[in-house]
């Protein structure tokens, strides 16, 4: 029986990072009807920018992280502001594909500008750790676990209590109706784009710190578990998305403790998403939703 | 509902006009005889890659353009085709004639396509695309773990102590040189393109068009949507599998050659090339294999620029010009033809024209 | 740099203290080196027991000290096995005059994908050739060198070889470094009469007499790392982890051979890169090796860094003995380790180094640093640049040994390269040669060092030792042929 304890901490931390981006995906989809597939690339741009600001321009760490998160929000907002309207009436598939186009633009830029050098981005929180006989956890991992839960709660409160939040819910419910009722659709959508972009930025920073700064992986393969989690939540339910993200992170990590299957553990998010999507398809639950 | 642009569907019947036949023949002669005469060995190899990858882009173009299915699992299918070809090659003690190997590979990959397509049938649009993306991720990871067969035993046929990280099927004896194999590939591609055109012209093509336009109406009119959707999956996968077989003999394969993001790039390039027109597959293959070389070797520009260009291109295509670059090219060709008096101007070029 | 903002002064104090302690220990143990700054060559001389030095060339071990005047041999056609024409640290003939004659066209290629940039090797070779051209070239003929880059796709590598050979019509293939090429292009180059002088990665680079690499590649470097781990006391089990890429099963197998020799258990692991959960993977490695075991890592710097960071964060640095193949022998890795983990890793990551430390202060190393600096190169100094320098120097030496007024074509140039012997450099433990045509593949670089990170730099930990001969590698036969 392998020792699972360290893998549980690691799995929960990874799951938290997935949850972070997953929440962003759900909020954005519910408000604008866009399934954003460039969220990973935005996070990657943010973390590489933070790396550059710290290491090439001597910025203070926290300032650089703030800049990275802000950049995530701004990039996502820019896309939404300029490309949201021309695509607004199109099929969700077309919207998602267009977002892939933006992901390619960001990827090409990153690979050109930042090439393939040795990099690591360490959040100061990784220095602080808590150890007892049972487990060892550092604060980046702790943040990774707790932050998304907090974010999800804040998001729920925001959607329910604030004016913009209620407007977002109205948009999610019926866009045309909301517009007729005088809700400033573009402004509300802009908030959704920006807010989700901030979450992608945070997710990217945590992923870069916990996993790797390799550009293509950071843009596509690593964050894909967030998409899987959002899909399990049917890009609708925040609690389900957060739960799913933690479960995926846990399973993925725990499989690493078992030598016989460890090699296949990274297929976890893909297989989870496939199973759930097929289940929805079989139950006919996709009508009127994403598809 | 909201398909304001996508409703501009391809014509259901594509006539084999003399002009079109002449264009196709001219193109074949150009590819088979002019290109080998003018290209250097290096560019010959690149042309060979383009010919092989035109089948990959054709396979995806059919799904996207004809049935409206966006698949992000095509590059793993190329890898699967290559895997199947290698496995068959070693299974039959390296004695299977190449054309038979290609056909078997195509058929088995087609079956794989059905296996992927069957459970996904009840999903539509975006969910289906996402399932293919997830399948691509899983297949890629599994492939890296099991690796391409190299003559070892067991189902996976991989021998750990073998040093070589590269596997290939020998080229057919009549086409061992690059030029000969290029011609061989062009002919294989031409046959496959004709099979595709025949499908589009025939009953399946009409069924696809009606399904694409409105699934409900099509089913009401008696179109068996399960059969024809699966047919599309099978055909696309079979074509892609043949491409895998051609590639494994052209250059050989290695496991980390097929990353997930390649499938994303492929979809972008196929959309950019144009999915409503079979020539679009050639344009896409050109973008995918030749353009990077021109950029790098001739213009000395960074290849990453191309990823950016493809990104911009695919957004432009999705927003403004759904018919892709091939439509612009066709318009230019038509303009020149009209100027030269070769063809009569058509009143509305974009309304119903497609070359098949 | 990143961590310099907080608590840096106390960090520096600790570091200095540690350095002092380390050097004291090192000195008192009679270790042959303190921090690798000096004397890297001398111990090599007092250690000949560890190797069978080229018998015909006893002077080879002190290339730095006594090298005969080198300008003169230019006049007479140098004997192929004679002394070096290039003086230590010199660029070719070192005349100071630019070469203006008929160019000698050479070509190369390297893998360049995110995470794996081998172009540093041909880039450094190009810098050396530029320096040669500014210093008399090959008896007045400048070397015209260019290189291609490619992804690990067999089609790309076949196309590149075709371009170099048939389109560009280069006279020699120089500095190629690829994850794949040696498995793909062996026959093609051999058929066309080329003997590429390269830096090898794929197993095929060391299994065919077509190629000869200035380095020893992951198969042997893993073995050297395993040797270092065993010497440091790894007990119970040896584990080796490589990227999940083609040929890596084979590269791992050298550690299995070492485990058998040392009477230890063995486990080989392949892991997809970049490692998706370094923390989990670190734990998995420690679990696999067991307390006190040995783990050899075979990853590039960018991949291994997050792993080392995770190991340090989880307090696993002392759980097992950590060793590595060559790629992380790179000062930027040492610096990044200092940034991330303070002194956790000092002296604890045994990296098999196929070349001398980068600050050895010896002539070739200094020339590499100076020319790299002067060229304003866009890549860092590392083991890769040493490979590039050596490829450049040895190719130049081969061309010079053809004598003044020689005819340069594919046949003559490749004959000169493939017959090169006694090529000396202070970066290597012993002279290099292209091939002894045993049919076993060439592994001329088969004696090397171990380095460790120490206070943000890589310093020598063990001086030159012989890579282990095993039943599955041809080193015994190769050394016998070396005499």
Low-confidence stretches of chain B: 1-13, 347-356
Total of domains of chain B: 1
Determine the strand fraction of chain A and express it as a percent band: under 5%
Oligomer: heterotrimer
What is the residue-averaged pLDDT of chain A?
A: 82
The chain-level structural class of chain B is: mainly alpha
Rg of chain A, please? Answer: 19 Å
What level of helicity do the residues of chain A show? over 70%
What are the secondary-structure elements of chain A, in order, as H or E?
HHHHEEHHHHHHHHH
- Percentage of residues in strands of chain B: under 5%
Radius of gyration from the alpha-carbon trace of chain B, in angstroms: 20 Å
Enumerate the strands of the largest sheet of chain A in spatial order, edge to edge or round the barrel.
1-2
Low-confidence segments of chain A: 286-291
Biggest interface, and residues per chain?
A-B, 51 and 50 residues
Helix content of chain B: 55-70%
Shape label of chain A:
globular
CATH architecture group name of chain B: Orthogonal Bundle
How many helix segments of chain B? 14
CATH secondary-structure class of chain B: Mainly Alpha
Largest sheet of chain B: none
Structure description:
The complex is a heterotrimer of chains A (291), B (356) and C (483). Chain A has 291 residues and is mostly helical. Chain A is 74% helix and 2% strand. Chain A has one domain (11-125, 134-226). Chain A has helices spanning 5-32, 39-57, 61-87, 92-113, 139-161, 163-173, 175-180, 185-210, 215-221, 224-232, 238-255, 259-262, 268-283, and strands at 129-131, 136-138. Chain B contains 14 helices and no strands. Chain B has 356 residues and is an all-alpha fold. Chain C folds into two domains: 17-46 and 218-353 and 448-477, 3-Layer(aba) Sandwich (Rossmann fold), CATH 3.40.50.2300; 84-216 and 359-418, Response regulator (Rossmann fold). At the A-B interface, helix 3, helix 4, helix 9, helix 10 and helix 13 of A face helix 5, helix 10 and helix 12 of B.
